[in-house]
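wait is this the right file?? whatever heres the structure
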């Protein structure tokens, strides 16, 4: 079954760390794709990654 996980953070470095931690927790799964996005609303940046795996 295909699953997704959305990870968001305010800094790229912390997002990267969170992604690495999650990937370590699903080591036996197949990673299908990782989508990355960032948005800035004038005062705050939000970085996010959508990890698609099975």
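ok assuming it is, sequence goes like this
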């Amino acid at each position: 079954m295909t699953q997704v996980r959305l990870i968001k953070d305010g800094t790229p470095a912390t997002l990267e760390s969170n992604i690495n931690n999650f990937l370590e927790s699903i080591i036996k799964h197949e990673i299908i794709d990782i989508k990355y996005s960032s948005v800035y609303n004038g005062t705050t940046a939000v970085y996010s990654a959508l990890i698609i795996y099975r």
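The CA atoms of residues 6 and 19 lie 10 Å apart. so i think its the right one actually
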